Amino acid sequence: MSHDFLAQITGSFAMPAGENPTVAMIEAAYRHHGLNWRYINCEVSPENLKDAVAGARAMGWTGFNCSIPHKVAVIQHLDGLGESAEIIGAVNTIVRRGDRLIGENTDGKGFVKALRDIIDPKNRKVVLFGAGGAARAVGVEMALAGAAHITIVNRGQERGETVARLIDEKTPATSVYAAWEGAFAIPEETDIVIHATSIGLYPDVDGLPDIDLSTLRPSMVVADGIHNPPRTRLIRAAESIGCKTADGLGMLVNQGVIGIKYWTGIDADAAVMRQALLDLDL
Ligand code: NDP
Question: Where is the catalytic site (predicted)?
């Protein structure tokens, strides 16, 4: 009987790493699809990142994720970037192509993939709350997916203006910054409302971004980046108005689906991965 004791290795470099549930989700997919692959969750400090990447190369890892604090710093150790990672200026997924390590960013791609189950971003008008790493990735990817116009609403003006300018200058979409002072009224012509700040993330489970909920219309799609808990106050409020919604768990799962596609070439079963996360009862 022939055996294959040599698994393909993928994983994650981050610090801290102990609370990252990605390993459970990815390995559930590997098992479900009968792949002899592993995903190793590693805690790597900033000063060890260079050696960790060299180690992954030396051991023939097929790819890995980078999370906080390595998403920008890892770029100098790579051999190239995908289009959106280049614009965003941050990488969360590294893919080995031949002997080159290429950086991709699946934060926004996962969001768009999940959103497409509900609405095609093409030609849509978008209001995006937040201007941190997640919002920047989501905004750029929505623009590359054909969104017509993106209004960036952020507490800090400078960060908000920077993201709006980036989208406006580096993608086909137009984008402007709008100040977030008091309850933000969603313009009537908006198709998609995206929340990508950290408001509502556990343990802030009662957090609700300051949006004038009376300006939400049932025709609008409301998406929240918060995955824990998935049913945020914003999602519940939008549902009660009759809006279609997309939760942050869909974003997280689809990032994993895209990562697995990059690494293995297979289309992983998103339902199995979502269930693996729900089973953790985060
Ligand atoms: P950053 O720290 O880079 O950005 C935080 C953002 O939240 C900024 O826009 C900040 O505004 C805003 N913010 C924080 N507190 C408040 C507040 N009290 N009032 C108004 N605005 C506030 O974080 P990330 O962009 O990396 O992550 C943001 C959220 O997205 C996280 O909660 C994370 O859980 C989620 N996320 C989800 C993913 C998924 O797969 N579902 C993937 C990645 C992230 P300011 O600029 O004014 O400080």
Answer: 71
Q: Which residues of the chain have pLDDT under 50?
A: none
pLDDT 10s digits, 20-69:
899 999 999 999 999 999 999 999 999 999 999 999 999 999 999 999 99
**C-alpha closest to that of 234 among 196, 275, 271, 203:** 196
Q: What is the DSSP letter of 199?
A: T
Q: Among 82, 135, 128, which Cα is nearest to 105's?
A: 82
CB environment 180-213: b (16+ within 10 A), e (fewer): beeebebeeebbbbbbbbebbbeeeeebebebee
- Asked whether the beta carbons of 13 and 91 are under 8 A apart, the reply is no
| Ligand 1 lining (C-beta closer than 6 Å) | 107, 130-135, 154-156, 159, 196-199, 201, 225-227, 248, 251-252, 255
Percentage above 70 pLDDT, the chain? 99
